[in-house]
Amino acid sequence: MMFIAAAAFTLASLTTHTDTTVSVRPGTLLDISNFGGSVAVSTWNKNAVRIEADHSARTDVDLDVNEGAFKISTSSRRGPPGSVDFEITMPMWMAVSVTGPFTDVQIDGAKSGIRVETVKGEVQVVGGAGPITLSSVQGGVVLQKASGRIKVSSINEGITLDDVVGNISAETVNGDVTLSHIDSDEIDASSVSGDLAFLGALKHGGQYHFQTHSGDIQVIVPDRTNAAVTVSTFNGDFDSNCDIKLNQMKGHRNFAFTLGGGGSDLQLESFSGDILLHKGTEMVNLRDLPEVKTTFKRHTLERIRTVEREKRHKARDNQSDEDKSDDEEK
Amino acid sequence: MTDRWTDRLSEYVDGQLAAPEREELEAHLGTCAECSAVLEGLRVVVERARTLESAPPADDLWPAIEARLVAARSEMGAGASAGDPDTATAPPPAARRSIVPFFRPAFRFSVSLPQAAAAALLLALLSGGGVWMALRHASGVAGNGVAARPGVTGLIAATGEATTSPRTSPVIDYVAPGATNAQYAGFDPSHYDVAIAELERTMHEHRSELDTSTVRVVEQNLAIIDHAIDQARRALAADPASPYLNGHLAQQLRLKMDLLRRVTDFAGPRG
Fold this sequence. Notes:
Chain A has helices at about 1-15, 290-330, and strands spanning about 15-25, 30-35, 35-45, 50-55, 60-65, 70-75, 85-90, 95-100, 100-110, 115-120, 125, 130-135, 140-145, 150-155, 160-165, 170, 175-190, 195-210, 215-220, 225-235, 240, 245-250, 255-260, 265-270, 275-280. By secondary structure, chain A is α/β, with parallel strands linked by helices. Chain A has three domains: about 1-135, no CATH class; about 160-300, no CATH class; about 300-330. Chain A has a 25-stranded mixed β-sheet that branches. Chain A is elongated and about 100 Å long. By secondary structure, chain B is mostly helical. Chain B contains nine helices and two strands, in the order ααααααββααα. In chain B, a hairpin with a 3-residue loop joins β1 (about 155) and β2. The model of chain B is unreliable at about 50-65, about 70-85 and about 85-180 (pLDDT under 50). Chains A and B meet through β2, β6, β8 and β10 of A and α8 and α9 of B.
């Protein structure tokens, strides 16, 4: 018992809590660099940054205010800095950059640009406007209620964007990409083994590219959608409840068609996964509908082939009619 | 101050001046202390170059080079904006040591003839590691719509990613994310193979600097991409003209390159 009490006392004496507030001028950038631990950023209406941090006595929290940037970092006199858990409160207008190889990052309420880069950490951001770049290797990335030029990436986990406005690039290798309630005229989403899902409207003149190797793709669009659609797969299937006007059949699993009057460009590519394009307002769980989907897939592909065959016949008939009338005139 | 001979000194050192010009220059050197000093500097550079072996650049050369190239890009049009954490301000030096440097200071420089000669020497030394550096640099430096830099043999592929082709390596027809299948016309996978082999070698060299679980995850994901590449190659063998399959293979190769590049980028901070 004595030993435990002594250990607890020693631990407590080695742990330090930093709490300080620094005034900042409008336009200043917040640059946080934390080797390991966590960074939670929230906002307030003051032109000041409050820094609260729990860390060992061997690790220092360094503050460096210079023209235009306020830098918060950690250091140690020996080796890499220890783990530090930061709670930062910053002005809403402040652009923020957070880096740290082993750091989880949470940002809530920012109204300016955001950049987060971690290797082994989760990234969760609510808010942000302007350039937003979020990346992790071993952690997932979640972004909500944001707008601007958005670039998100992971390697081994998924990416989730919800209620987002702006141009979007989302890329992962071994995770799903889920984009819901999106208002964008340019989306480029890709994965290698993960599924891609999109729920939102396609805007006139917009470009939307979804590409995966072995995952499924589902795109859910409103009833009156206008788009030129290209579907490419090697051994996946295609499923749609839309009224399709086939333009081009490049092979039985590579074809293009138009929804409504066209006007936006939608490319759907999955090497071995299935591709679903539906009109609706909610995502479909593909794995919940295997039988319905298979039936519908066969129906859709057969219908496409039939339309293509009819077009060929019609073109041939028209040609022979023209030939006949030419002969008659002669 | 320079005179009409200053720009000819390099030719003189290399023995490329015709006899009448050489004699005229030698006469001039007898009366011009500045040209004599520049000539001496050039001879030192050339002499040192002879004693050096061609070797790949040390890893830590890259951040400074990258920072300069990025600054050059900023000058070409990516101006700073108040709300953009990429471009808002110049950092304190320590801030540049991050997974990928976020802040790059703008700078301008001019070079004298000896400096130009030294720069040429540096470029020659760098050429051995050119592929690796070019690839590390490709995603971070050249953004969409950025023109190829003067002095770099390059091409703008697909959506504008600049690529370099050092003398010792083939052209890397790097295809940018989001490229359409039609933009993969003429794509040659062998170019990626060379680049990927270089990056893999670099990654293995840095393996001990990385967190073990990160290495494991990276290797798992490389295996996933390799599997996709293998499947795409086989499909392409059966249908070589397919724009989709060509594009798909290029996309997987690009992903692999990007992942390897990221690994080599974040190898540094831990050490």
